[in-house]
């Protein structure tokens, strides 16, 4: 990799501006400079992209394809500069040209093609694949509108469209020549060929063109550039014109064109919840049909092997069940286009697909109405029926002990198609995303499937890319770490463990403390500039950033804040370390209770932040439009990382890992990856509270606990709930009745009251621990030291060796 100096870059930026914009630097805007720099980066990347593809082709390496309805990649200029080894030079060049680096980077719109954890995980995986020299690529959808932009107006969430493609997106290349045709609806006709085999023909289908847009995925200083291919839906060229000549078809065609473009129109804003919308089903099939066609075309072109050898050269990971129609689609092409027999096609298919499960929440499990699939995808429906038939037969004949369970195991049951069942039956690997999650799948949620296919099930604990989430977002911390233990940790993140040797070195701990404090000042400035609220940079920054969900329990957090406020009102002179509670969260637009919680947090904030009687000891900040870029600002400044889901509900969590890596201490339940964090750092370096997963599951089995008992016996709880009910936190006195009712009349389904007291007590431990700076920093450094275990490099190595069987090229 050539060394590019700041002065080279400076010159190149100046030249670009003249050639492309006909302007001098002095007249250039941040945007002009952003585009100039991006195109210079592209110039560097593109030869490597070409070479990487050549290399994979000439070595005929096995490829992994990650199919996902979401890729939450955020901004790319800074991370591409970092991975290409140009970031320092670029920062220097920009400053010398009189620009603030941060403002130039901020010209890029976040690519928010994902909702939350699942989409961000896909983005981290791509970064690790490329950085570890693995031939691995993503397939997704180029949504014209990403996840909505959130505004808070009078405390309420308001959603605005995210038209992120308004300005040209410099990282994508349209590759029209690789377009494929996707067919929906129509009729299937069956014929007998002369040799007796069956032939299926489709008639009167609606045809759509899938056009790929490719985004380079740059590996860290290794010249590897992989591909994220995003499909865009367009009318098939020529068809409009032909019809237009028939006259009068104009309006019909405009309408038709519009309905086609809708397929890649917007990302559904539901996180961990399922809605049976037909357009979403169309999107899913659009993604998988285009990707599978593309994968097979490429295999045939570059490997010159029979399709029976596909599993030796291709493995496809499906990110939850959202792309699970890829399975019948693969069967369809192998049989109908490639003339394979069922058994041969089934053998190939079941050796190519691997499935990752990301949740056990029942409201998130996808099941489609049989009729909807039958109507939209008639041939696919026939294939699913056949898979189901054969699977049920095999239970009936080979597993008599499970005969009674067939309705609970069948892929098609009571008029619905169960996608997780389809994925398990048809994949060679089924993995959960954290140890406890995989155990719950095996012992409970998918128990019978586990007994049928014990060897398919395995765990792959999630990870995060330490390049973006430490090196890029927290350069000061990265520098101190490298000063202390050298910089090998950047290539081998587990070497962060060497920090343990220094975790009692007072001078060093003070340095870490100083870095944290500088990051907190930066965030405090940002908050002031965004909200006008001044926060105390010496206060504890207590952070909960994630999608708003009842099971994630932002409500428990704000109840604790209300409790603290009530206490301070009674005793303003109370000796207490000042606290700043920072929230960032989007709610699905149709998720009423989640939106009520957003309103509650903002309402509490509007009271607490302006009450001078509490002497600035408590501040509540709700930052609007939480997204990847905002996470990048908040995470380096966090002292406490709130990971307080109802135990058993959060499959893994990944924000917990990001904050740990930046020296925050986790305050959490024994859920998801929190358990693995605790096992590493030990009980002394984490704040754990609340019911365990086993306890929660047992309560559920026995009909829950009695929430009203707590309401009637704990004055602190009663007071808070009554305040919600009586409008002490609202303009009108009906403000938060629904939250009140949900807890007392629906019996607190997420155990907020049950965990309230232990949560309070644990917060008290936090507050006391924070007073001893050195001990706190020792805990903080211990967390950073162990966080290398959660680099997605580690996760990807495990996928590669256990599931994908792919080699580094
Ligand atoms: F419901 N997750 C997510 F399982 O962000 F599909 N969106 C989703 O739709 C689902 C899961 C789904 C999250 C999990 O909630 C989180 O615990 C996990 O860390 C993350 O996926 C990545 O595995």
From TrEMBL:
GO molecular function: glycogen phosphorylase activity; pyridoxal phosphate binding
Catalysed reactions, semicolon-separated: [(1->4)-alpha-D-glucosyl](n) + phosphate = [(1->4)-alpha-D-glucosyl](n-1) + alpha-D-glucose 1-phosphate
UniProt feature coiled coil, ranges: none
EC number: 2.4.1.1
Keywords: Allosteric enzyme, Carbohydrate metabolism, Cytoplasm, Glycosyltransferase, Pyridoxal phosphate, Transferase
Cofactor dependence: pyridoxal 5'-phosphate
Keyword Signal recorded: no
InterPro entries associated with the record: Glycg_phsphrylas, Glyco_trans_35, Pyridoxal_P_attach_site
Gene Ontology biological process terms from the UniProt entry: glycogen catabolic process
Pfam family, one: Phosphorylase
Localization per record: Cytoplasm
Superkingdom to which the source organism belongs: Bacteria
Entry GO terms, CC: cytoplasm
Function: Phosphorylase is an important allosteric enzyme in carbohydrate metabolism. Enzymes from different sources differ in their regulatory mechanisms and in their natural substrates. However, all known phosphorylases share catalytic and structural properties.
Family: Belongs to the glycogen phosphorylase family.
UniProt protein name: Alpha-1,4 glucan phosphorylase
Native organism: Oceanobacillus halophilus
């Amino acid at each position: 990799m050539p060394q590019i100096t700041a002065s080279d870059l400076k010159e190149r930026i100046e030249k670009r501006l003249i050639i492309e914009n006909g302007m001098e630097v002095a007249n250039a805007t941040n945007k002009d400079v952003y585009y100039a720099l991006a195109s210079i980066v592209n110039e560097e990347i593109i030869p490597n992209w070409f070479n990487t593809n050549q290399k994979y082709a000439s070595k005929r390496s096995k490829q992994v394809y990650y199919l996902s309805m979401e890729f939450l990649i955020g901004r790319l200029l800074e991370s591409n500069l970092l991975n290409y080894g140009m970031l320092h030079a670029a920062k220097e060049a920009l400053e010398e040209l009189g620009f603030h680096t941060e403002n130039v980077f901020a010209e890029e719109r976040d690519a928010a093609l994902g909702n939350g954890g699942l989409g961000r995980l896909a983005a981290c995986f791509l970064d690790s694949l490329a950085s570890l020299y693995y031939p691995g690529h993503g397939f997704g959808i180029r949504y014209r509108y990403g996840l909505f932009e959130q505004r808070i107006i009078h405390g309420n969430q308001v959603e605005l469209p995210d038209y992120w493609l308004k300005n040209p997106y410099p990282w994508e290349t349209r590759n029209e020549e690789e377009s494929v045709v996707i067919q929906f609806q129509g009729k299937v006709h069956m014929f007998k060929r002369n040799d007796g085999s069956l032939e299926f023909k489709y008639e009167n289908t609606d045809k759509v063109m899938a056009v790929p847009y490719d985004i380079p995925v740059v590996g860290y200083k290794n010249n590897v550039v992989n591909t994220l291919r995003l499909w865009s839906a367009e009318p098939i060229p020529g068809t409009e014109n032909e019809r237009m000549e028939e006259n009068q078809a104009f309006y019909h065609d405009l309408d038709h064109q519009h309905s086609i473009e809708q397929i890649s129109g917007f990302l559904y804003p539901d996180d961990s919840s399922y809605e049976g919308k037909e357009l979403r089903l169309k999107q899913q099939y659009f993604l998988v049909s285009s990707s599978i066609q593309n994968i097979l075309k490429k295999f045939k072109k570059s490997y010159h092997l029979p399709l029976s050898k596909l599993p030796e050269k291709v493995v496809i990971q499906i990110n939850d069940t959202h792309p699970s129609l890829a399975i019948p689609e693969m069967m369809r092409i192998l049989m109908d286009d490639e003339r394979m027999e069922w058994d041969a096609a089934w053998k190939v298919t079941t050796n190519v697909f691997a499935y990752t499960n990301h949740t056990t929440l029942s409201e998130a499990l996808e099941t489609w109405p049989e009729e909807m699939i039958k109507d939209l995808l008639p041939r696919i429906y026939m294939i699913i029926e056949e898979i189901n038939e054969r699977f049920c037969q095999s239970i009936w004949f080979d597993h008599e002990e499970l005969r009674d369970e067939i309705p609970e195991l069948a892929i098609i049951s009571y008029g619905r198609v169960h996608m997780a069942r389809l994925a398990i039956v048809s994949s060679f690997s089924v993995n959960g995303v954290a140890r406890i999650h995989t155990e719950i799948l095996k012992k409970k949620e998918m128990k019978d499937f586990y007994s049928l296919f014990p060897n398919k099930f395995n765990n792959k604990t999630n990870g995060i890319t330490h390049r973006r989430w430490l090196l890029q977002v927290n350069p000061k911390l990265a520098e101190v770490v490298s000063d202390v233990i050298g910089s090998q940790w950047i290539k081998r993140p587990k070497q962060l463990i060497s920090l343990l040797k220094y975790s009692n070195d007072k001078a060093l701990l003070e340095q870490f403390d100083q870095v944290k404090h500088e990051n907190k000042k930066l965030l405090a400035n940002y908050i002031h500039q965004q909200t006008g609220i001044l926060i105390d940079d010496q206060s504890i920054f207590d952070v909960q950033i994630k999608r708003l969900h009842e099971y994630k329990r932002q409500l428990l957090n704000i109840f604790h804040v209300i409790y603290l406020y009530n206490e301070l009102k009674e005793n303003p002179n109370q000796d207490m370390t000042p606290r700043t509670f920072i929230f960032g969260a989007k709610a699905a637009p149709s998720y009423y209770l989640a939106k009520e919680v957003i309103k509650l947090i903002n309402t509490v904030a509007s009271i607490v932040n302006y009450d001078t009687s509490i002497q600035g000891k408590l501040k509540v900040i709700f930052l609007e439009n939480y997204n990847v870029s905002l996470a990048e600002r908040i995470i380096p400044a966090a002292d406490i990382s709130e990971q307080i889901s109802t135990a058993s509900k959060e499959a893994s969590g990944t924000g917990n890992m990001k904050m740990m890596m930046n020296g925050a201490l986790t305050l959490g339940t024994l859920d998801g990856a929190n358990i693995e964090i605790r096992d590493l750092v030990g009980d002394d370096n984490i704040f754990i509270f609340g019911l365990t997963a086993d306890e929660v599951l047992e309560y559920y089995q026995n009909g829950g606990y009695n929430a009203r008992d707590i309401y009637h016996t704990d004055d602190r709880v009663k007071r808070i709930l009554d305040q919600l009910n009586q409008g002490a936190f609202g303009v009108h006195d009906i403000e938060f009745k629904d939250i009140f009712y949900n807890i007392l009349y629906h019996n607190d389904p997420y155990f907020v009251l049950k965990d309230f007291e232990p949560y309070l007590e644990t917060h008290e431990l936090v507050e006391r621990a924070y007073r001893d700076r050195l001990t706190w920093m020792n805990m903080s450094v211990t967390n950073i030291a162990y966080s290398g275990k959660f680099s997605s490099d580690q996760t990807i190595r495990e996928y590669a060796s256990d599931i994908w069987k792919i080699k580094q090229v």
